[in-house]
Amino acid sequence: MTKFITLFFLLFSAILFAQNNNFNKTITKVKGDLNKDGLIDYVQVLQDSISETAPYKLEIYFAEANGNFKKVVSTTQAIDAQYPDGRNGYYNGNSFYKIDIVKGILSIQNELIRGNFEHKFRYQNGNFELIGFSQVYSDGQGTMGTIDFNLSTGIRIKTTEPYGEDDFPKTNSKQKIMIKPLPKLQDFSPFKNEYY
C-alpha cells in the first residue's frame, strides 16, 4: 500500500510538473539594456503548443556582471492566448505580433482584425510598470480611431475620423486620467479595464 501511495504521488507530481513546463516553443527573443546598468538583458516569449488555448509566457532576464542571467519576471497574463476559447472556439481578433526594446522601454505589440495595439513598460521603482498604451482601430463601418495614453503624465488622447463615403465629423478628445499606482507587468492583463 505504501508503494502504491508513493507511486501515486510521484505520478501526480510529474503530471503537475509537465503541465507547468509545456512552454516548449520559443516565439521570439529580444535583447537590450532594460535596467540601465550597461549590461544587455533579454526578453523572450514562449508558447505552450500542447495546450488547447496555446497560451504565451513572457520572461525577462537581467544580465549580471559575471555573465549569468537572472529571471526577474515570468507571466502568462500579459499576452492573450492564441486560442482563448480553444483551437475550435471563437476567435476574438487579438493576436500577438512582437516585442521590442527601444531606449530601455519594453513594448508588447498585438494585431487586431482591423488595427493594432501596444503596451509599453519601463523598469522603475523596482518593477516593470505600464507607462504607455496606444491603439489604432476601425469599427468596420467607416470610422477609424486612435488612442494614445501616456500613463506617466495621465494624458489620454482619443481621435476618430471617417474613411468611407459617409461624412462623419472628426472628433478629438483629451482627458487627464491618473492611474496610481501604475500597473506592474507581473499583474497585468490587456483590456481588463476601459483605458488600457
From TrEMBL:
Keywords of the record: Signal
Record's keyword annotation contains Signal: yes
The keyword Signal is annotated on this UniProt entry: yes
Highest taxon, organism lineage: Bacteria
Leader sequence residues: 1-18
Protein name per Swiss-Prot or TrEMBL: EF-hand domain-containing protein
